[in-house]
Specification:
The protein has 328 residues and is of the alpha/beta class. The protein contains nine helices and 14 strands. It folds into two domains: 139 residues, Rossmann fold; 146 residues, Dihydrodipicolinate Reductase, domain 2.
Amino acid sequence: MTKVIRWGIIGTGNIAHQFARGLQSVSDAELVAVGSRSQASADKFGDEFNVPNRHATYEALASDSSVDAVYIATLHNFHKENALLCLQNHKGVLLEKPFTVNAQEAEEVINFAREQGVFLMEAMWTRYFPAMIKLRDLLAAGAIGDIMLVQADFGFRMGTVLPKHRIFDPDFVGGALLDVGIYPISLASMIFGKQPERISSMAHMGETGVDELSAMIFGYEHNQMAIATTAIQVNTPHEARISGSEGRIHMPDFWHPTELTLFRDDQPPQTFDCPFDGNGYNYEAMEVGKCLREGKLESDIMPLDESLALMQTLDKIRAEWGLKYPME
């Protein structure tokens, strides 16, 4: 593997732009190719980020011999086919969350990556921030004793319902759960290191048939719990609170955090400032580069078995609501 990781991006939307900007903060990475569904879109993106190879099809991007790894930034319902295409062409894949539409798709993509011996990772960018690393270190050191409760939310307000917008359209796997609900659910998974044994949830379905507001309670062994809330028509604080037998940790803006505060029983609070470089997307790119140089096929921080387990949890939640997407 070359020292500099040569990246390609599939998709030219907002999240692709964010990742491209993040790559500019990675010294040992280079954006060499972009793939779109039209030459005009690829050229526009290429002009903005000085990308030498601009492809009018995803197939052309996947077969580009100058590319080591591909970031897939397409709509949720295309993740599986785009990932399989890149893996078939032996390109390492960073697959934007949610990993796929459901667990069946996730299992298919993961099995194929393992059969091909090609790197694959879910792009849960939150896991790699300095503040999140500090959180894991504090929890591992027993800073709050036994972890008993995780509370986290991620909601925003779209406003006017636009039936053909990806957020509201079931054909594009719209709704809050898979778009932003994955953040608090993935956080609980990271902290507890497992999926819940019991799930109780409630959702409000909007006029287009997707979930606009929901709350979930997860139950684990040893009486541990997690509470996650998510929305696309309600602004929420985006906070995470982790409570244990000897204290608690508060993390504002946990999906792109810059600080966290430790409250230990009978002691003054202690705030840890954890600024991040770039726009934050650089850290997941750095993790991919590290893994590729070490010859790894997956990340220890976001392992594939956990990505699959998370999709299984999301499936169980949707089953409680009776929510199925048209392609399922």
